[in-house]
Write a structure and sequence with these properties.
It is built from eight helices and six strands, in the order H-H-E-H-E-H-E-H-H-E-E-H-H-E. It has 201 residues and is an alpha+beta fold. The chain has a single domain, classed as QueA-like (3-Layer(aba) Sandwich). The model has no long low-confidence stretch (mean pLDDT 88).
Amino acid sequence: MPKYIPDTKLDEWELRSRYQTVFAKAGASIAAPTASLHFTKEVFRSLSERHIEKRYVTLHVGQGTFAPVTDKNFEEKKIHREYFEIQKKMVEAIQKAKKEARACGAAGTSTVRALESSAKTLFETPDEIDSSTDIFIFPPYQFQIVDYLITNFHLPKSSLMLVVDAFLKDKKAKQSLSDLYKIAIQEKFRFYSFGDSMLIL
């Protein structure tokens, strides 16, 4: 559990099962991919009715997701390493969507890192991708795979906020990241793991 969430009376098993997505299968993460906590079976049913396809990435989220950004990260253009798996169905779906000029979305900045670091491979391989990434995405950055993003309101000074900032700037958004956070504060949105999310098109 993130350190900013107060202690609960739940035991370790309950914490692991409740602080997780409804579709998680593999258990090698140190934390849940929080943007995906917004998805329920009802939400998936609604998306399916609108003919929005879904595919899965297995993310092994590490402790580094909570780490603040340092000068060294900018110098090396690298941050914490995370392991991931992109299933064959996902690879095929992305290749087909890109060929047909259809938009591909991502839920969460960890998913963005996995997809963007695999961009070259995603266009070349017919197989699943089992890999890791230490990619550090910050402005300016040209996104090759992800066309829209669902993400939470993240901790300040985090690499996650820089991914969102880079995405807004790449999409030439009319509002900056700080503008969006000001609106979120004014509207009393909830921040962090169990907070509200935003969709960036």
